[in-house]
Amino acid sequence: MLATRIRRWKSVALATAAVLVGLTAPALTATPAAATTTAYDSTYYKNAVGKTGTSLKSSLHTIISSQTKISYSAVWNALKVTDQDPNNSSNVILLYSGVSRSKSLNGGDVGDWNREHTWAKSHGDFGEVTGPGTDLHHLRACDVQVNSTRGNLDFDNGGSTVTNGGGSLVDSDSFQPRAADRGDVARMILYMAVRYEGDDGFADLEPNEKVGNGSNPYMGKLSVLKAWNEADPPSAFEENRNQVIYDTYQHNRNPFIDHPEWVEAIW
C-alpha cells in the first residue's frame, strides 16, 4: 500500500512591481515542491523529520543505508517487477523513451532492454559490484540503444533529439531525459548522493554543477536536477516502484520520492 501523501500546496502570486518599474517579466519557473506527510514519518523517517541541510542529509543517510543488497544478475528479475507496465503485466516501461516492452526482451541486442545505471558506473568506478552497482533505486529498464546513447553523460538541458528516445535530448557532454522522466532521474541521482557517502568502501557520490565529470564520483548539474525535481513531481508509477523496492527487495526507500521538498532542504 502506497504511503499516504497529503500535499499542502503553497499559493503563488504573480508579481506586478516589476511591470511598474518597466522591467521585463521573468520567465516562468517550477513551483517549489510542496511539503508532504507520509505514513512513514513517525516510523521510518522519525529521526529525519524536522531537520534541514547537512543534519537532514546525515539522518537520511543513516536511515536508508540499512538495506538488503542483491546481486547484479538478480537485478534482471527485480526490474521485471519494479518497472512493470501498470497496463500490461507482461511488459516493463522503459526509462527515457517511455516505451512499453515485453519483459522477455531483456538482453543486449537491438530491440532489447537492459539495465541502466542512472548514476553512471564510471562516476565513482563502482561497476556492477553489489552495492551501488546493483542498487535498484537508480537502476531502470532501458532500451539498449538509448542506454548506449546516454552512456556515462551527466544530466543537463539541451541537445539534439535521441533516436527513439521519447523526446530525450543529447549533446557531447550531457543528456536530457524526456519531460516525464526528468524528476524521476533527479530523485534517483540525489538518492545515490545521500546513500553513498564514502563510509562503506565505495566512493562518496556527490552532485555538482559540472558536466563532463568523467570518472570522478560526481554527477551534474545539481541546479538542473533540482529544477527537474520541482517541475516533474513523483508519479504513481514512481511511488509504486519505491514501495515495491521497500517491501520486496532492499527494504529501504528513496526519501525524495516520499518527500520531494527535502531536495531543496538539503541542497
Task: Draw up the topology in text.
Blueprint: H1 17-20, H2 53-64, H3 72-82, E1 84-85, E2 88-93, E3 100-102, E4 113-117, E5 139-143, H4 144-150, E6 154-155, E7 160-161, E8 169-170, E9 174-176, H5 179-195, E10 206-208, E11 218-220, H6 222-231, H7 236-249, H8 255-258, H9 262-266
Parallel strand pairs: 6-9, 10-11
Antiparallel strand pairs: 1-2, 2-3, 4-5, 7-8, 8-9
Region (Disordered): 155-175
GO molecular function: hydrolase activity; nuclease activity
Protein name: Ribonuclease
Question: Structural class, from secondary structure content?
Answer: alpha+beta
Q: DSSP strand (E) fraction?
A: 5-15%
Shape: globular
**Straight-line distance between termini:** 30 Å
Q: What does the average pLDDT come to?
A: 90
Strand order of the largest sheet: 6-9-8-7
Question: How many domains, in number, for the residues?
Answer: 1
β-strand number:
11
State the helical fraction: 25-40%
Total helical segments: 9
Radius of gyration, in Å, reads 18 Å
Segments where pLDDT lies below 50 for 5+ residues?
Answer: 1-29
Largest sheet: 4 strands, mixed
Helix-strand sequence: HHHEEEEEHEEEEHEEHHHH
